[in-house]
């Protein structure tokens, strides 16, 4: 009997592809981020969409995996600065296995 091989997180992320829209599906009020007590979005996003540079939050919507953890974390532990919606049909993340 062959043993089933499970992929680690890095291998799974490598199988993910994207068809980004020209229009962002993530909207961040970066002024609210300036006084955020936790910067929770930095820690919950596995795709590292959010980055803190020079004291400001920068984000790259094209890398978003559409998990929604950022908006939950921001609204529960941060300043409610993130607004998020799914990309238009045909755009966004394309999940694959194998």
Descriptive account of the structure:
This protein has about 100 residues and is an alpha+beta fold. The chain has a domain at about 25-90: 2-Layer Sandwich (Alpha-Beta Plaits), CATH 3.30.70. The protein has 4 helices and 6 strands. The chain has helices at about 10-15, 30-35, 40-45, 70-75, and strands at about 15-20, 25-30, 50-55, 55-60, 80-85, 90-95. The chain has a two-stranded antiparallel ribbon with strand order 1-6. Strand 3 (about 50-55) and strand 4 (about 55-60) form a beta hairpin. It is globular and about 55 Å long. The relative contact order is 0.28. The model has no long low-confidence stretch (mean pLDDT about 90).
How would the global form be characterised?
globular
| Global structural class | alpha+beta
Our estimate of the beta-strand percent is: 15-25%
Could you give the count of β-strands? 6
Sheet with most strands: strand arrangement: 1-6
- Overall pLDDT level: 91
Secondary structure: elements and pairs:
Blueprint: H1 9-14, E1 17-19, E2 26-28, H2 30-33, H3 40-44, E3 50-53, E4 56-59, H4 69-77, E5 82-84, E6 92-94
Antiparallel strand pairs: 1-6, 2-5, 3-4
Features:
98 residues; 6 strands; Alpha-Beta Plaits
Describe, in short, the structure shown.
24% of the residues lie in helices and 20% in strands. The chain is α+β, with helices and mostly antiparallel strands and 98 residues long.
């Amino acid at each position: 009997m062959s043993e089933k091989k499970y992929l680690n997180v890095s291998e799974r992320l490598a199988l993910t592809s994207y068809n980004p829209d020209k229009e962002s599906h993530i909207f961040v009020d970066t002024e609210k981020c300036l006084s955020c007590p936790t910067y929770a979005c930095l820690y919950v996003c596995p795709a590292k969409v959010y980055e803190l540079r020079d004291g400001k939050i920068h984000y790259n919507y094209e890398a978003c995996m559409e998990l929604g953890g950022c908006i939950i974390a921001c609204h529960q532990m941060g300043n409610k600065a993130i607004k998020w919606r799914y990309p238009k049909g045909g755009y966004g993340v394309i999940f694959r296995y194998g």
